[in-house]
Amino acid sequence: MAGIVTGTSTISITTSSSQSAYIDVLKEINKYIINILLAFIMLAMGCVVTVEDFKVVLRRPIGAVIGLGCQFILMPLAAFTLAHVMRLEPAFAISMLIVGSSPGGTLSSLQTHLGNGNVCLSIVMTTISTTAALGMLPFNLWLYSRSWTESTGTSIPYSNIAIALVLIIIPVGLGMIIRWKAPKIAPVVTKIGSISGLGLIGVNTIINCLINPDLLSSPWTLWAAALLLPACGYTLGYLFAFLFRQKWRERRTISFETGTQNVGLALALINVTFGESPLFLSLLTYPSIFGVIMVVGAFGLVGLYVLFDRYYTKPEDETDSAGGDDPDEEMETKGVHNPATEDL
Description:
Number of strands: 0
Shape: globular
Number of helices: 16
Structural class: mainly alpha
Strand content: under 5%
Radius of gyration: 22 Å
Distance between the termini: 68 Å
């Protein structure tokens, strides 16, 4: 009997060891996939940006300023508030703050194109918010995370986060160089980046489910927080754009940019800065759930706008109201090529 028990114990230890090795391999694969796909996403982001885009938008910068305020003031505050209201565990709350403090991504520009928004403004806002995230993301984490780090003794490696952000936005600069030096290649890179954005969320979620089978049975509060955060972003973005008398295209664009976060960037930051932390798997849980809900919600919202545009004719006087002409239309009037609608 003792031999049988010993044998059983040996088998159990061997099985446990093999499972641990299997999970470690999946973790490494996930890290490489996230980093590679994110590089394509950021490269694609740079490929759709031109100097003319900035010139047109910055002639009337109010839209971009509103978007930045919503992105880095309202969204982190919304994440902080929801995390407390839902009483999330520290790891879930911190990862929610990382997502809420992240800039917009290529998906928001695709939303804007399909939802009949101002694509030129969307591209410029995404680029500016990605650059601003170098300082604003660590600052918001420092400002809001103390509710959980001080009580649990968890430390956040702010310097590692800043370094990771610098490395992450390098592909954006490379993409702008590609756009400048090889404009014929830029549309191809952009399409690859757009596909990579959706692929990153899908592949990461599948691998995280394999690594952590309990992900799908996460607390209902976590699912509710993942549903409410983008909804708050869309609502607050549209509301503030309306209060500042932006036209309907700009309202939609600012709403999309506020509610649609760059989940790939958030996942990459967690991989780079918390890869060896015992909280690593828990930190990946919220972005994985949020990413799926965000994509479904993003295209659902676009569908509602498409139906609205089909059956409702907007008053002509609104398009001529305070706030100036549409930058996209202005580019076409001046004979300037706007790559946004072609590339996305």
